[in-house]
Design a protein that fits this description.
Layout lengths: L4 H13 L3 H14 L4 H11 L5 E2 L4 E2 L4 E3 L4 E3 L4 E2 L4 E3 L5 E3 L4 E2 L4 E3 L11 E3 L4 E2 L4 E3 L4 E3 L4 E2 L4 E3 L2 E2 L13 E2 L3 E3 L4 E2 L4 E3 L3 E2 L4 E2 L4 E2 L7 E4 L4 E5 L22 H6 L3
Parallel strand pairs: 1-4, 2-5, 3-6, 4-7, 5-8, 6-9, 7-10, 8-11, 9-12, 10-13, 11-14, 12-15, 13-18, 14-19, 15-20, 18-21, 19-22, 20-23, 22-24
Antiparallel strand pairs: 16-17, 24-25
Length: about 260
């Protein structure tokens, strides 16, 4: 006997949010009880309790208002910090965030894949910094190396709509999802957009507001819409104007600074 439509819809919702009914109720209970607690007390309680619902290699620093969907498929390295209102949706192949990485306020890492895409997932390396309201769509798979920095409102979009037939709605024509790779030590300026199928080489710099539609070689300096290479860091970058500041505090000692500073 077929199930009622509302039962099927409810089951689909549960499967999109969690790995099962029991896990769903535990996850929602913990997030309802602890998700909005402010300050160090909230971070401490979430750091202990959320280890029951996600994979944490160390103590996770999770600010209030963080939303987790499919948390059992989320892996956090040591010293990871998730700022307020971060949203991670790990269905189905997971999100992995490396040691010491900081995800800033309002950022969205979203893998939700109901089409059976084989490479869907997001992997972020060690000591990265994602600025406020960064969006990563991982349907085609997104791999980010170590020491990658983004300014605010960067978009990394490993998915694209098919629109060749003008007589059919685009929603019915399917998607493509080739994947995006960003190698170590890359800096994406504020508002930059990286489109599906792109590989950005090690050490590259992408200017603010640029739209990357093609691969960038290692150490390239790229700007514009679409982004074009205007130089190489190997040939010497422009001189620095003004003083240069350095900092190396562990995440646990610099949560306040991390929330006030964007590279």
């Amino acid at each position: 006997m077929s199930r009622l439509p509302w039962v099927e819809a409810l089951d689909l919702y549960i499967r999109s949010q969690s790995t099962g009914w029991g896990a769903y109720f535990l996850e929602q209970a913990l997030m309802a009880l602890l998700g909005g607690l402010p300050g160090l007390l909230g971070i401490a309680l979430r750091g202990v309790a959320y280890r029951l619902i996600l994979n944490a290699r160390g103590f996770p620093y999770i600010a209030r208002g963080v939303r987790l969907a499919q948390p059992r498929r989320i892996t956090l390295g040591r010293g990871v910090y998730l700022d307020e209102e971060v949203y991670l949706h790990a269905c189905p192949n997971g999100i992995t965030i490396g040691d010491g990485t900081v995800i800033m306020h309002g950022s969205v890492l979203h893998v939700y894949n109901f089409r059976g895409l084989p490479k869907a997932g997001i992997s972020i390396g060690r000591k990265c910094f994602l600025g406020e309201y960064t969006v990563i769509r991982g349907q085609g798979g997104v791999i980010i190396g170590d020491f990658v920095y983004t300014g605010p409102m960067v978009q990394i979009l490993a998915v694209n709509h098919v629109f060749q037939d003008p007589h059919r709605p685009m929603a019915e024509q399917g998607i493509t999802a080739q994947g995006i790779t960003i190698e170590d030590d890359v800096w994406l300026g504020g508002g930059a957009i990286v489109l599906d199928g792109v590989r950005i080489g090690r050490g590259a710099v992408v200017g603010a507001g640029a739209v990357v539609t093609q691969d960038l070689p290692p150490y390239a300096i790229a700007v514009g819409v679409p982004a074009r290479v205007i130089g190489s860091r190997l040939e010497g970058a422009p001189p620095v104007e003004g003083p240069v500041f350095h900092g190396g505090l562990p995440v646990a000692q610099s949560l306040v600074l991390a929330r006030k500073e964007v590279p």
